[in-house]
Amino acid sequence: MRAVDVAGMAVFFLFQGLLAREVLAGLEAFPGHAWWVLTLAGIGGYLWADFVSGFVHFLADNFGSIHTPFLGPVFFRTFREHHVDPLAITRHGFLEVNGANCVVSIPFVVGTYYLVPVRETLLGLAFGAFMFLFLVGIFLTNQFHRWAHLPAPPRWIRALQATGLILGPAHHQRHHTPPFDTYYCITSGLMNPILTRIGFFEAIKGPLGRAVEPIIGRAEEVVVVEPGAGGAAT
User: Residue 86, SS3?
Assistant: First the structure.
């Protein structure tokens, strides 16, 4: 698995570099528009990354059986065990924490690089800059999530968390309070109050469940048994 993480991260950063080069060339081609393109792309991309992190988190927490082939043990179980052992993520290394997000981001960065005329049209430039910064946010999501669970993070991480621009422990603790059904967004958490106020996840849970549960199964609780305690995780 580590080989997959290393390869995925290498490919992701290669194409992010190529996409950044296209964005810079586009900014040179449309110099008068650089300020609003970068501003909207930065804000929009970062907030969209936060929303996507929450939507994926919501899906993994609420739908799908841990016994579903491939998705169950790789995806659903990981999210649900995190509720039982929230410090487990702090025991994982950089590659293990961030490799998967790089792998799933590859189709998006490759597609944008090859299919979007970033340096040729203003709309292409805006979309290319948005995707680049969105994928930066997705890459950082699990790292910010890990930092939010560190028992004693370094001072510079606490300073970043205090700005509210990255996920902080007090904010994230609202999700880790049973029944674990709110504040799913884990990049910055900036979208959490908005989505909670409009009842977004509550509104889509029923219709979405009826659509996906016949395919991937119903969610079940996960119990983690410490090594040597007897029995097995269920």
Answer: coil
Residue linked to tokens 């950082």: 140
Tokens 């910064």 -> residue:
133
Give the whole-angstrom CA distance, residue 191 versus residue 53: 10
Chain segment 157-169, per-residue pLDDT in tens: 999 999 999 999 9
Q: Give the Cα separation of 92 and 103 in Å (integer).
A: 17
Q: Could you identify the residue written with the tokens 């390869």?
A: 7
Q: In sequence order, what are the beta bridge partners of 63?
A: 218
For 74-89, letters b (16+ CB in 10 Å) and e give ebbbbbbbbbeeeeeb
Q: What share of the chain is helix, strand, coil (3-state, %, to 5)?
A: 70, 0, 30
Give the dihedral of Cα atoms 72, 76, 79, 85; nearest 10 deg: -40
Dist CA 18 CA 38 (whole Å): 17
Preceding amide of 86 cis, omega within 30: no
How far lies 217's CA from each of 65, 127, 181, 205, in Å?
5, 36, 19, 14
pTM of the predicted model as reported, rounded to 2 decimal places: 0.90
Where do runs of H (alpha helix) occur along 67-187? 71, 77-84, 94-115, 122-149, 155-162, 169-173
